[in-house]
Structure formats: structure tokens, C-alpha cells
Amino acid sequence: MDREELLSATPEDSGEPKKQESPLLSLEKDLEFYADAIKEVAIEIMVEGISAHPIFIAHQHEVKLGEIILNREELNTDWTIQASTLEEFVEKGIINKEKKEQFLKVYKKPENFMCVFVIVPEGANFIYYPYKKGKS
Q1: Beta strands in 7-136, from DSSP E residues, in sequence order
Q2: Residue 105 is part of which domain span?
Q3: What pLDDT shows up at residue 133?
Q4: Average confidence score pLDDT of the chain
Q5: Cα 125 from Cα 111, distance rounded (Å)
Q6: Tally of domains in the chain
Q7: What is the pTM of this model?
Q8: ∠ CA 24-28-31 to the nearest 5 degrees?
Q9: 23 close to 78: Cβ distance less than 8 angstroms
Q10: Is 83 part of a structural domain of the chain?
Q11: Is 4 part of a structural domain of the chain?
């Protein structure tokens, strides 16, 4: 699922009175703010040979997966970001071993996109968020 799909369902489109703003709007703002730091960690994970497939977890609660790299309480933002890898996701059973190849087919270049596993009360899903253009 791309971020456009996640962010496109807005109450304004339905003609109904505006309800609570989607938490995904605040996620997009935080990912924009965090982009350089996330990209730096992704490159570090790849260069150090930890994994060729970094995955970042965005959440607002406590998650026992990966390591915290950006804490929402310390940074006064809405989302905490943790760094993980495809290997950890497979090891913990979040990505089924049989589905690993299928996942890799849709996994976007980590030099251009951050792979984010977004956890919200309704469930969790992967999104690919592009790094800003013109930034290295």
C-alpha cells in the first residue's frame, strides 16, 4: 500500500462533517521531519552489512521490535520511529517466511524510499515514503 492510498481517505471527500483528523496526516508530517535521520540510519544498516532491507516502525505506543531511533516524547512529535530489518520481521513472524520473496518484489529501493511499518490501533501496514528530492 502506498502512502497515497493511506492518506487519500479524508472526511472532506465524503461530504460529511469533518471528523477527527487521520493520524496518518501527522505521520506524514513527522516522516518529512525525520527523513534525513531515517535515511542516515538506513544507509548505516546497509553499509555495516546488518541488512540490505531496512524497515522502520512508526508507532504511538510501545513496540518490542527493532530499536528506537527517534522518540516522539524527546522530540515533541506524534510518532516514535524504530529501526529494524527484513530479517527481524521474518524471524519474529511478522513477515511469513513463505511471503518473503513476495515482499522483496514490492520492496522499493532503500536509497530512495523508507519502508515504514505503520502501527495504529486499527492494525498495521507497510508504506513506502519517498525521501526528499535533491537530498543525498
Answers
A1: 54-59, 67-70, 80-85, 113-120, 123-130
A2: 29-57+72-119
A3: 63
A4: 86
A5: 21
A6: 1
A7: 0.81
A8: 130
A9: yes
A10: yes
A11: no
